[in-house]
Amino acid sequence: MGMTITEKILARASGKPAVQPGENVWVNVDVLMTHDVCGPGTIGVFKQHFGPDARVWDRTKVVIIPDHYIFTRDEKARRNIEILREFVREQQLPYYYDVGTERYKGVCHIALPEEGHTRPGEVLLGTDSHTCTAGAFGEFATGIGNTDAGFVLGTGKLWLKVPPTLRFIFTGDPPAWLMAKDLILAVIGRIGCDGATYMAMEFTGEAVFGLGKIAAEFAGQPISDRPVGFSPAIEERMTLCNMVIEAGGKNGVIAPDEVTEQFVRERTQAAGTRTDFEPVHNDPDARFAAEYRFDVRTLEPMVARPHSPEHAVPVSDAVGEPLDRAYIGSCTGGKVLDLIAAAKVLRGRSVAIPTFIVPATTEIERAMDRIRLNGQTLREIFESSGCIIGPPSCGACLGGPLDTLGRLNEPLRCISSTNRNFPGRMGHKEAQVFLASPLTVAASAVAGRIADPRDVLN
Ligand code: SF4
């Protein structure tokens, strides 16, 4: 019987000729990522079970990226970073992106591909639920808890159940204003927050491979100090896979193509990480648990009302609802393409409500000074429209300590390009968060209420 991409990756990683959904297998892990929130707990589990002098299974396969509680005076947050530093020194880990140094990156899920740690066909595990983002590179990527991660640190293996695959097929030529965020909100709105529980979600169809038009004119433009180019298509695929966990998905996956392979080749060579990889595709007779079809010509920009991503509605159902704040940032909505999209709306306009822009990584922050629209850099556009720009990190996506820039410290109504809008997610328990694409967030920031970006794009 044929296998899906996910099944084939897990078969290879477990040394078996074939696996099927529901089967439990020992999987060899290619990369384990952790960060400042879960890293200390993971290290504690590792030390407790493998001993105080234990060494990690493979120091070149452990990646530690502090990103969550970075720009804060909170003592506990600072102590977490110290624990990471001590462990990195003790284990001599080469892939640590320390705060306050030139290596500092920002949000882990964006830093991983930037720093050459994502490759088609591999298994990437991370102590963060949005580790699924890396499925955009045709790999098996999923979030795990500290206990599992501590075990992986010691053994390089994990006992995993092979998930069945749901297939989402997007047909039609996507208009420039339709972003990956709209597609994934449409999916979650249709299947619900538990519609893909412990399942792989594969995204395919011409529309998926045609995403990124809003920033297509910048494709290939250097955005880094390294010789690598901007890829709007890859960034949009990351947004799709990022939010599969909001539907309960175990992992998201998109078949690797030439765009993927070029991106991975450039990034791994520039970063000096492993450059070999073996892409995997569905067998012609692969079996899917179910298929869902979307014709993008029938879709609108989407907005998820409080307090769940499954409360997604077409923007025309929400236009005019009042807002107090707008936020553009995170692994979902703080990438280069997201900022270009926002700038296309904000240039020559002023925001009507406090609007925060938080680039996901230091590389994206630098891109704000390199990319120009009509002669103005993205940073100049944001500043002249009245936005407040924060330093690269998770920022207020998950609230964070009280002094986090952009945190909702009052019961405000905020529209955000992030991925979760549960009560308290961005701070105050009574705050109301609306999720949308950066285009819709920017248009709403200008209007001071929920607005349709199609009315303001020029
Ligand atoms: S940006 Fe938000 S969703 Fe992404 S890793 Fe950070 S806290 Fe999690």
Strand order of the largest sheet: 13-12-20-19-14-15-18
- Classify the helix fraction into a percent range: 25-40%
Tell how many strands the DSSP assignment holds.
20
Average the pLDDT over all residues and give the rounded result.
98
Could you say which overall geometry the principal axes of the C-alpha atoms support? globular
Strand share of the residues?
Answer: 15-25%
Indicate the radius of gyration in whole angstroms: 21 Å
The number of distinct helices, counting runs of at least 4 residues, comes to 14
The total tally of domains equals 2
Biggest sheet character: 7 strands, mixed
CATH topology title of the largest domain: Aconitase, domain 3
> Which stretches are low in confidence, meaning pLDDT under 50 for 5 or more residues running?
none
Classification by helices and strands: alpha/beta
Please give the CATH class of the largest domain.
Answer: Alpha Beta
CATH superfamily of the largest domain: Aconitase, domain 3
N-end to C-end Cα span? 51 Å
